[in-house]
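Researcher: I'm preparing a figure for a lab meeting and need a structural model of a single chain. I don't have an experimental structure, so a prediction will have to do for now. The sequence is pasted below. Please return the structure as tokens so I can convert it later.
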Amino acid sequence: MNDFDYLGEGEVYLDGACQSLRPRPVIDAINKYYTEHNSCGERVKYKWGVKTDEKVEETRKLVLKFLKLSARKYTVSFTLNTTYGINLILNQLEVHHFKKVMTSDIEHNSPFLATMAFSEKTGLPREVMTREEDGSINLANYDFDKAVVVVNCASNFDGRKLKNIKELVKAVHKASGIVIIDAAQAMAHSADIVRGVEADAICFSAHKMYAPSLGVIVWRDDLTSKLTQSFVGGGMVDDVEKDSYLLSAENKEHRYTRFEPGLQAWGEIVGLGAALKWLDKLSKKAWQNLENNTKELYDFLKGSEKVHMVNHEPNPTMTFYVEGLDSHLLGNALSRENIMARTGYFCVHYYLDHVLGLPPLIRFSLGLHNRPEDIAKIKKVMEKIIY
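Model: Understood. Here is the structure written out token by token.
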């Protein structure tokens, strides 16, 4: 794909689950911000600032359009990353509304540790649910009465999806609880799983979906009634007196400021808008190429007796270890061949290490930048190593 023409010949990038490569239109949009309207948003009246405001507002609308959520119910706020967004929400929840906090066993450390800290801080009990091999949760096994449920909709080690996500949200809401979705691994290639899902908050990282390093919180406006503003600063107030202040978020038009203290990453927000437009315009051929590459590589790995896959089905994110080989050494060997892959436990220590008892693993996470020749090279190099 020409949008990734900066990739050198023979360079194979397989770490999109950590952060995706950025296509040319995104890079160009960021450069245009810095060279044509580098300015603070929401604070200035000169034309550069007006242009920045227009671009930022456009990105908020594009996020809601991408997720198929209504602006009448939802607000988009920008932050640092998924981890920061989840913690920002949890640390401002009014504890008296809830009886417990729940997460699942296949979570990234982002929600796993955040729910642990929330439980320790509030004294609410914490429950770790078991996810099925297909990624779903057996809802009949759990009591969601006034629960804070924080779960992913796609895992970061094998891509398994929360296939009954809508049923989960419905069950939790019926029991007077709330649902916070970690959508970091879904937004690039599996966004359909979360589109139209009316969770209380959806947190994701733009840098995993072909955009700059940025976090996003998409949250229901009625979540406000369960929050106490405790993280405050510049850019969040309409007026300040000696011992009091008036929050801008009290105005529906500026509700997003509730989770946006201080100066925002304006260039990165503009870049996210460009990434959303780029994803929307991608051809069927580009998506078919990703699907073909995924299936070919998955079938190749699955076909070796020495390769032990964590995946139960093909996914652009696939994790495995090779019998008799240290994964970190394998990662180094691949690196010498210009194949860039991640090794370790991918911030899922509890499940991969302590539940499954697996050794350190290697993860191949494909993206829209990968070419058929990338897969051919991976197979050729891996065959030398395995056999």
